[in-house]
Amino acid sequence: MVHPPRRITVLEVLRLSTGYLEEKGIESPRLTAEILLAHLLDCQRIDIYLWFDRPMEEHELATMRRYLRCRTDGIPVDYIIRKAEFYGLSLLVDPRVMIPRPETEVLVEKVLGLVEECTDGPNGREGFLFLDLGTGSGAISLAILNQLPGSHAVATDISLGALRVACANALALELSYRFRPILGDLYQPIRGHGRFDLIVSNPPYVSDGEIDSLP
């Protein structure tokens, strides 16, 4: 009697993927492999270890190979899985937008602190209107809206593709009714709009640690 070949398991795929990424010089190879594999299996990273002996299907292996090729070609993990975590929110990201940086959460904290100082309790924040210049994925606006239920945002971006991503995120988070996207460069499309309680912006920048490595 001929037995079918043994299928490779989840844990074996994790081990082989980690080794491959390490060999290719990818930073944090184990973490990267865990994130990609968890996304593929639609589970949390911890579940990988609970499902360690689950056999992988051939189509799953093919997808994992594609993920690994993308990563070794220099594509960021967040673009591969089309998702980024920011201030407790899960956001759609793709090459139309910049990936939100973790340090940008400090800006959100500062805004929330200013609102706390300048308003008189939750009732004073009702109708709070702010402007987000260069919104990109909408990360900053949506994080603030999520924390301030009575607030509203006007968000501009020069890229139609970026605004489409931001709108998709607002819709997915059920915040679209308080998020108004406007196509245009910085202040240009909102001239004559009226007053805002606050203006926020976090345009693309090069960090101090990256300057020396630029050509």
UniProtKB/TrEMBL annotation:
GO process annotations (BP): methylation
Enzyme superclass (EC): transferase
PROSITE patterns reported for this sequence: N6_MTASE
Reactions mediated catalytically: L-glutaminyl-[peptide chain release factor] + S-adenosyl-L-methionine = N(5)-methyl-L-glutaminyl-[peptide chain release factor] + S-adenosyl-L-homocysteine + H(+)
Domain Release factor glutamine methyltransferase N-terminal: 12-81
GO molecular function: nucleic acid binding; peptide chain release factor N(5)-glutamine methyltransferase activity
Any one Pfam family match given in the protein's UniProt record, by short name: PrmC_N
EC number from the UniProt entry: 2.1.1.297
InterPro entries documented for this protein: DNA_methylase_N6_adenine_CS, HemK-like, N5-glutamine_MTase, PrmC_N, SAM-dependent_MTases_sf, Small_mtfrase_dom
SUPFAM superfamilies listed in its UniProt record: S-adenosyl-L-methionine-dependent methyltransferases
Superkingdom: Bacteria
Domain Methyltransferase small: 130-210
Alphabetic keyword roster: Methyltransferase, S-adenosyl-L-methionine, Transferase
Protein name, UniProt field: peptide chain release factor N(5)-glutamine methyltransferase
